[in-house]
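Translate sequence into structure tokens.
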Amino acid sequence: GRDIFAAAARELDGRIAHTCLSRAVMEQFGLRDRKELIGYLYAPQTGKKGIAAAAPLLFQAIAQKDPAAMMIGEHAARELALLGETVVRRLNAPQSETALLGSILTQGAFICDQTKRLLKETYPELCFVSPRNDAAHGAAGLALERLLQGGNSNG
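Result follows.
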């Protein structure tokens, strides 16, 4: 969400060309100008949920091929792929079945596809599957597996 607000602010002060994110943010949050946008961002009541509420706007803007939104989506995909690579490496599981979870991946096809593409570049034998359970279930299963194997969790 933070990057969406940043793109809107950059357009409003003339640092970047038009992005449909600006209008979408202003309408969604009932803001009239850059001053109100900044006020909203720094208001104590906004919090993380208030910022995250902008995320669906990114998916809509990507569908419209908005350049700023595409850049945000590509950056998110790179960061998610890096996170995924780290998990695969630490688990020593380059041929594993992998389920991608989280709203940015389950609701954002572009970001999910880019993340998968980047992960496949590093780990071509990864097999992407639909989640069978939620993330907490998976984490508990991994912990139990390590415990039963006599391993530690610092690996």
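Note: The first strand starts at residue 97 and ends at 98.
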